[in-house]
Design goal:
single chain, 5 strands, globular
């Protein structure tokens, strides 16, 4: 009986140690994994949308709590001003969820760019939502808060030929992005102000140093 108790105690201690070790490893690598995912999966779309920015939008980012979800916003600095951001949304396509990165200028409430980050759409058909520049270009300059629909559904979005379902998914994702933007704009504007002040202080510190 005594041996059994010892064995149970040892197992409990080992389990606790292993759990703590795994938690520590997870915490220590979480930021690195997140950055790698941003750089290689979402990064190309972010950099394309915020092309010409004088900073690195993948590095210059902040998060805002949206209910149970924590959303990341990527900052683009142009002419010394941090007034463009990109954030993620998604819509339902033919092969599953379509991940979207949407850029917006909070001063004008206009879309500055759209890019598909992830999808499982049919190669050569729905997958063109990610590779066809003309398809995503049609959204630039449109109001961020708008209900997007393909023309077949009474909207003004030109669908990809042979990929109406995919196009509907992108339109739906953009409409959802508009809802997110409308809901979080007050916090977003405040965060951009904080980010701008922090950047000015850093620059002044570098000059003084």
């Amino acid at each position: 009986m005594r041996e059994l108790i010892k064995m149970v105690v040892v197992l409990v201690v080992l389990s606790a140690f292993s759990g703590g070790l795994l938690a520590s490893l997870r915490d220590s690598t979480k930021d690195r994994i997140e950055y790698q995912q941003l750089k290689f999966v979402k990064g190309p779309a972010i950099l394309k949308i915020l092309e010409g920015a004088t900073n690195n939008p993948i590095v210059d980012r902040f998060k805002i709590k949206d209910g149970d979800v924590e959303r990341s916003f990527f900052v683009g600095k142009f002419n010394g001003k941090t007034d463009e951001v990109a954030f993620e949304s998604s819509g339902k396509g033919f092969g599953g969820d379509i991940g979207l990165m949407v850029g917006v200028n909070p001063n004008t409430d206009k879309i500055v760019g759209v890019g598909v980050t992830t999808s499982s759409e049919t190669p050569g058909v729905g997958s063109r939502a990610k590779t066809d520049p003309d398809f995503v270009a049609q959204f630039t300059g449109k109001p961020m808060i708008e209900t997007f629909k393909v023309k077949a559904d009474g909207g003004n979005v030109d669908a990809l030929s042979g990929a109406t379902v995919t196009s509907r998914g992108v339109a739906s994702g953009l409409t959802d992005a508009g809802s997110i933007y409308k809901r979080l704009k007050p916090q977003l504007v405040e965060k951009l102000k904080e980010f701008s002040k922090k950047a000015v202080k850093t620059k002044q510190g570098d000059q003084n140093g």
